[in-house]
Structures are given as C-alpha cells and as structure tokens.
Amino acid sequence: MNALALVFLGIEWTRPLGLFALALPAIVLWLARARPHWRTVATGTLALWEEVAPPISRSGARPRGPISLALVLLAIALTLGAIALAGPRPAQASTGLTWRIVVDRSPTMYRANAAGELPIAAAARAVERWLAENVARADRVLWQAPGGWRDERSEGRSMPSDWLRAPRIPRSRPRFVEEDRAGTLWLSRSPLAEEPRTAGVSAAAIEPSHGPISVVGTTRFDWDGKRIEEIAGGARPARVVATSELPEPIDAFVATWTEARGLAYEPGSPSAVGALLTLRRAPDGPEHTIDTGRDGWRAHGVVRGSARVSDDDGDLETWLEHGDVRIVTHGPGRIEIAWSDMQRPSGDPAAFAVSWAALLDRALLPHPSVVPLAERMASAPERFEPPRAPPLPEASIAAVDAGPKIAAWLSLAALVLAVAATHANARQSSPFAASSSAN
Amino acid sequence: MSDTVFFPNVRFDARFAARLDRFALTVRAMHERREGGGRAGLAGSSGEFAFHRPYTPGDDLRRLDWNLYARLDQAYVRVGRRESAEHWLVWIDTSASMGAGPPGKLQLAAEIAAGIAAVAVASKGEARVVASNGREVRVQARRELPRVVSFLESLVAEGVDEARVLPAHGPALADAARVFVVGDLRGRKPRDVLSIARGRRWLGVFQVLAPCELDPPTIEHVRWWDPESSRTLDVANDPATTARYLARLASEQEEWRVACARHRAVFRAVPSDSAFEALLTEVLVR
C-alpha cells in the first residue's frame, strides 16, 4: 500500500513521483535539437566544398541537431525506464481494498484533557495522518461508530466532523474484540479493555480527572483525586418527561419509580430538552384492542398505531408487541408507547413493577456530568499501532503480482533499447564505414 | 556537440606480411601464366633488351643469344629490361589531408606502397619508398620488406603537401624505371606530376580519397575540416550541394585522367576502404 499511489489511464502508479522522469526523454530530445550539432569531418577536398556550398552562416540555415535513430531509441528507453520507475500495475490492485476505522464515541472520548483537547480528536488526527501516508487513493476507508442503538457509518479519508461533538444520546464503548481483524483500526482512548491481535489501535492519552462520579437525587458524589466527597444538594434532580398523556397504570408507576430514584417526573411537559428519559406516545394509526403482557403480567387495552423502530436518535428496540403491532419500543433516553388506553394489569402487581422498572432503568440516560470512578482515575499514554493490511481480493492479488513483472519487462525493454541506442550511436559516430585499418 | 573523425596513423595487422607475400606471388604467377613461363618482367615490352648474362641451367633456351654464342662460343641469354633489376620509386603523400577517413587515406597509401615494394623485390628489383616529408626507405630483397613495413607504420599524416618535394628527389628519379605517385593529389596539378613521365619511364598516379570524400555523408550538418590549413566550412548537406560537389570532383578527376593518358601514364582513383591488391593487380598485370 502506498498513499502516494495514483490511478491514471486505468493504471495504478505505485510510485507516481517516478513519472517526473518522463521529462528526461523530452529534455534529451530538446537538448539534442537546441544545441548545434556539428559532425566535424576531416577532408582534403575542402576547396571543392568551398566552391560549391554556401556556408550555413551565410545561407541562414540553423544548425539544429539531428533526431537520430540513436536519440529516438534513447528517448524511448528513457520513457520506458520512467514508466517502470513509476511502478505501474493494473488499477485493480487497490480496488476493493477496504480499511475500517471503528470509532469509540463513548462519553470519555469527549472529556477534554488539561490542554482542552478531546481524546476523539487526538486519536482521529493520528488515524488521518496514517491514512494519508499509507493508504492508496484507490482504497476505501470506512468509519464506523458502533456501541449505540444504531451503528453510524461514514466513508472518506477523514472522520466526519460532527463526530467530534458528543452524541446527544451517550453511546457505549464498541465491543472492540468483535472488530479484531486485518484492515481494521480501533479509534479509542487508553487503556483498552482488550488488546487487539490483528487490528490496529489509535488510542488517545487519558489522564486522571476530578469530578462527579455519581448523582443520587440532589446529592452529588465527587472524586477530588484522593477521596470521594458527598455534596448534598450538589445536583438538581434529573428530569423524566412524558411528552404526551400516558395510560394511567404506566403514568402511576413512572411517578413511583422517579420518586424512588430521586428524579423529577414531569408528565405532560412540552419540552424534553435535558431530560434523562422521555416517554411519548407512538404516532397515531389503526386502532386495535389488545390483551398482552410480559414478565408475568398482562393488560387489556386499546392500541393506536404501532411504536416506531427508529427515530432521529437511532434505532429503537421492541420491548412489547402483539402480532405485528409494536406496543412498546425503547432506546437510550426514550420510550415510545402505543397504548392509548390500558386497563390495570392482571397478575402479580410486583411483576408489573419489576418489569417496567427494568425498562425504565435501561432507558434512563446517565447523568451528563457523571463519569465512573474507574475512568476518572485512569491514566495511560497515547498509542498508535497500524493495522495489518486487509486481505486483497483475488483480482487485486493478481494485479499486485503483475506489478513487478510489468516493471521488469519495461526495464528489460529499456535496457535493450539503451544498448541499441548505444550501438546505433557508435555506428553513427563512424558513418563512413570504418575498416580494420581505421585508427 | 562536435565529433571529429581523423585517422592520421598507419597500422598493419599481424596478417599483413602474409598478405604481402601472397599478393607478390599472385602477381608473379599471373605474369608467368600470361607470358608463357620464364622470368618475365612486370613492365615494358617483352622485346625490350637490357643486357646479356651468362647462361645458367634452367634458363629458357628460347632466350639464348645464338649469335653471341657463335661469336664468343659462350652461352648468353638476353635479359629484357623488365627482367633486369629495375628500380621502382614510390612517392607517398603524408600530408595531413591524408588523415581523412575512415579508413585513413594514408593507411591505403601505405598498403599500396608496401604492395609495390613486395612486387618489386619479388621481381629481383629494387624499390624505394619516399614520403612527402622527405623520409625514405630502400629495399632490394624480400627479407628487407619488414623494414618497409616499419617505415610505413612510422608515417603520420601531418603537415602540408609541398608540391616541390617530389622533384627534389631528382637523383632517385633518374634511375627509376617505374614511378608511383600515391596521394590524394589535393593542391597538386597534373603538370606537377606528369613531368616525371619522361622517356621510357613508366608512371602510375594513384589518387586515394576517403569514402566521405567520394560519397559525402547524408547527415544534416557537416563541418568540413581541412587538417592542413585548419580551415573549416559548415555545410548543410542538401542533395543539390552534394551533387555540385561530386560533379566538381569528377571534373577534377577527369582532368587528371586525360592528362595522364596524354603522357601514357596510368591514373587510378580509389577509395581508402578498398583493397590494395585489387588496384595493383589491375595496374601491374596488364
């Protein structure tokens, strides 16, 4: 792989700087023409020439050097040599070769260090520099940010600039071990939970940082570098918002759950900005009367429409469905409910509470200022390890194999022509049939 | 850019001595075949009397002088002029213009001179090779031929062709039955040479020219250089100019040919890449 490789005329030039050598034959030809080329020949018949031939200086003819056969052969030899120097090979050599950058967009990647730089920016810069220097232009570079409710993807030599901003819905760290393969580079921060075997790593340095490690209600727990400090009233209660009217059993349970978690519940709130969890009704649609449940509870109710499986923030996971009607879907920070009316669930009331509490806990976003203590204490230098090259497609392997052969044949042809040029030049230097007695 | 071609020296390869021998024998054999055996000479009419010498076994009895035998009671054979030990003179031009080539004109001139000397001594004659620079060598026997070869190899095409050099060898000319003038004849008029062809003296004039002088190269630009005067002339070798040059050269050669014919001298123009054997065989075995 060579970042300088250039695809031109359907050919990949692995050393395109070699193409500058194409100027050589042009220069040689130009010099040969530009400089007067006199072949001085001794003669005893000069007087005769003086009688019959006007001198060139008088006749006005310009004494341009001739384009001899030797010169033409030399120019062709130089051209072939320059082409060989540029390392030509079929363009298929690099097509289909794909590099994958797996990006960690978890919250720690957006926590600025003492210099004010984001780890994701530092790690991305190192990756982009390596790509520029080592990856052929014909190669594809895919950027992927798994670890969320929806994988984000992009293609190009640079990481998408909007990835430098923390996602509204915090994402978890990618499961890097599942991405350990040739041609893949992990973009994260140190230290890594797993060590790659074949993938590369660009991990930003991380240093200990003081700050909140937990918020419970209005009490905040800070780590000051040595110990944990409890600050009562140090945080405002995090908000849980219901942007539309919820069925009564659900609304009542959410109120109970938020109270137990020290959260502020705002039913019927028009704005969900800053909320750690938003509950909302699914868009209206066909109405169904459905009796369904899970985890040991059942409920009879009316469903309008179907809960969505994705929204602007990514994919939503189906939590409760009946036939092809999705009744509850959820994602980080949001729960969508299709029930318009719901009777009190039957069965063990505790089963309903446990089931819904698990859903609410799962969907609840972490407090934005909170960083787990282990991450606050972590300290590791940056590291960069390039990935192994991804396997080539068969066509590319054949094309890569063809490269040295093409260069070898071109070099051989150039050599033969150069020898022929030398021979032709020698013959031209003695154009008067040198004999054995020539001295 | 400038490439000069100049070949002022003479070099004989290792096979040249054998070549000379073979040539001399060939010429002599051709004479013998032509004249029906005996020790025919190489010039002059067969009846041209030179002197008598005592008969020795093996002599052709047809050449016995019976009248003298009757008067003196001793057997003598008639020796023709051509059979006598003739003195041959080879004058060779070593001026700088003889370095034109390739091969250099002086090279062929030297080969011709060596060939003539070989034939002369093979015919029991004597050869004297005189260079235009005044140096000379004389040979009377075959064993002395290497001296001629060495002498010729020491020649260098340099200096100016002084037209007066040849007449300066007046004494050498006096007893020379045959005179060979070998050179490019540049700067020399027929009358400068033909005065040699007096009386019964045989004269051969061999004009040696370089291939590039006889057939100018077709390359676009030539800087003709006269090694004697160091003058140069830049010429665009277009076909018309070349044609004019060749016509002028042919005119000069015709002038020589006519003048030589008028003086019963032999004139030959040869390119320097030709073989001396062909020229001398044609001239000496006539």
- The Cα radius of gyration of chain A reads 38 Å
Share in helix of chain A: 25-40%
- Number of beta strands of chain A: 25
pLDDT averaged over residues of chain A: 84
**What is the count of helical runs of chain A?**
9
Largest sheet of chain B: 6 strands, mixed
- Principal-axis shape of chain B: elongated
Approximately what portion of the residues of chain B adopt beta-strand conformation? Answer: 15-25%
Give the strand order of the largest sheet of chain A, numbering strands 1, 2, ... along the chain: 7-6-5-8-9-25
Oligomer: heterodimer
Helix and strand composition category of chain B = alpha/beta
Category from helices, strands and their pairing of chain A = alpha/beta
N-end to C-end Cα span of chain A: 56 Å
What does the largest sheet of chain A look like?
6 strands, mixed
SSE topology sketch:
The complex is a heterodimer of chains A (439) and B (286).
Chain A: E1 6-8, E2 11-13, H1 23-34, E3 38-42, H2 46-52, H3 56-59, H4 69-85, E4 88-90, E5 98-103, H5 119-134, E6 140-145, E7 152-155, E8 184-189, E9 200-204, E10 211-216, E11 219-223, E12 228-231, E13 239-242, H6 248-261, E14 264-267, E15 277-281, E16 287-294, E17 297-304, E18 310-311, E19 314-315, E20 317-322, E21 325-331, E22 334-337, E23 339-342, E24 346-347, H7 349-363, H8 373-377, E25 383-385, H9 394-429
Parallel strand pairs in A: 5-6, 5-8, 8-9, 13-14, 13-15, 15-22
Antiparallel strand pairs in A: 1-2, 2-4, 6-7, 9-25, 10-11, 11-12, 16-17, 17-23, 17-24, 18-19, 20-21, 21-22
Helix pairs in contact in A: 1-4, 4-9, 6-7
Chain B: E1 2-5, H1 16-35, E2 49-54, H2 66-72, E3 76-80, E4 87-92, H3 105-122, E5 126-131, E6 136-139, H4 145-153, H5 170-174, E7 178-183, H6 190-194, E8 202-209, H7 211-214, E9 221-225, E10 232-236, H8 239-262, E11 266-271, H9 276-284
Parallel strand pairs in B: 4-5, 4-7, 7-8, 8-11
Antiparallel strand pairs in B: 2-3, 5-6, 9-10
